[in-house]
Amino acid sequence: MKLGISSRALWGISLPVMAATIHEAVIDVANTAFLARYGINELGAIALGDSIYDLTSCAALGLSDGIQIIVARRAGQGRAKDIGRVVNQGLWLVSLVSALLCLVILTLSPLLTPLLVESRDVRAAVDDFLGIIAFAVFFRSANFALGGFYIGIARARVLVWAAAILAVCNIMLDYLLIFGHLGLPRLGIRGAAIASLGSEIVVFVFLAGVAVASRELRAYRLFRREPWRPPLVLALLRVSSPVALEALLEAAHWLAFFSIVQQLGEQALGAANIVQECYALLAIPIEGFAEATCTTVSNVIGQGRAGRIGLVLRRATASTYALVLPLAALTLAWPEPMLAIFTPDEAMRAAAADSLRVLALGMLAVAPGILLCAAIAGTGDTRVTLIVRLVLAIVALFFTWIVALELELPFAFIWLGEAVGWLVCMGPAYAWLRRGEWQKLRL
């Protein structure tokens, strides 16, 4: 299955992926919006709890990206029979990793939270959340893996329905379980965790069901017991390991960010959580085109047309700005409507408004940086993207520390850290891509 490199082809992959990105965003938005109306301790706790949960999902996320990259490469090479083998081996690896991660959350999180959270009430809420959400790792990891398969074969439209199902299930369960409607117990943050778990289970059943029911997808021979194939497993691990470390680094980045902010007080932590959720919404178009860029770059290399990588990246960047620029302009002019999604508290919205404006302006630098990393990942040299993300995290966190705790500048200035980090990283990353060192790799 050979992909085109036109702007229309990129939009064809990225639009469904944007809808699928709601897979993450809807859960976070719904949890934050409902818990903001439940209590300030729960609002701060969900930021830290989600950051810890995201840390444990990094290995599975890395494997899903490895599956996507190799599946797209095999599709470009016209090796359809090998696609199912990649997915089956990947799912076995994901299952093993998920069991380990669940145990890690249940055993280590009670030891970790006292080191990160000063408030006893916030700490108790974080522990309640993690004690339940740990069991969602199995289904979330499998959903990541299946999502990588669908994107790799350019069937991302399946993920649109998955995102819609996830949104409906999560919002309904949040409403019922957090506040205790229809005679159900009022569970607060534990209700948010149960809602997330239930939603992941429903989406897994849907994604697996589509693969089983579709005649076209049955040709890939998914969900078959196969012997371990060491060369394939090693290829998956070689591509996935840096991506997993990259996701771990990004999650640790946000966890460290919130740990710095919580030293400014509970209101600052709550406002930071809301602004970070707005960031997730604004980044949906960027993430959509990033996935399209990664898949298309890997596919065109498989076709033997590596010289078109620069054209793919330029078209993806132009298309991304076509969506990001209007969103950034609206947010700069009127941040209140987006903030009102998360909290009815006028003081909280006022505290977050200037921060959101600064963040929206910074997205102009964030967008090309993320797309550049996606193109590098598509070449298969995910070690370089890991290095880029490491430099980004160091620069951004150092900037946040200096601004918030040393210079004690206004709260809004800390949100310049992401843009500053990407501006530092983009030049060296683009120079590496132009040198073509990735051509030495064999997937």
Overall description:
This protein has 443 residues and is an all-alpha fold. The protein has helices at 7-36, 40-56, 58-77, 80-116, 120-133, 137-152, 157-179, 189-213, 215-218, 230-261, 266-282, 284-302, 309-333, 336-340, 346-379, 382-406, 417-435. The chain has 17 helices and no strands.
What pattern of helices and strands is seen along the backbone? HHHHHHHHHHHHHHHHH
**What is the radius of gyration?**
21 Å
Fraction of residues in β-strands: under 5%
| Structural classification | mainly alpha
Beta-strand segment tally: 0
The main sheet comes to: none
Low-pLDDT residue intervals, each spanning 5 or more residues: none
Q: What would the average pLDDT be, to the nearest integer?
A: 80
The coarse overall form would be globular
Number of helical elements: 17
From the N-terminal CA to the C-terminal CA, the straight-line distance is 17 Å
Residues in helices, as a percent range = over 70%
Note the topology.
Blueprint: H1 7-36, H2 40-56, H3 58-77, H4 80-116, H5 120-133, H6 137-152, H7 157-179, H8 189-213, H9 215-218, H10 230-261, H11 266-282, H12 284-302, H13 309-333, H14 336-340, H15 346-379, H16 382-406, H17 417-435
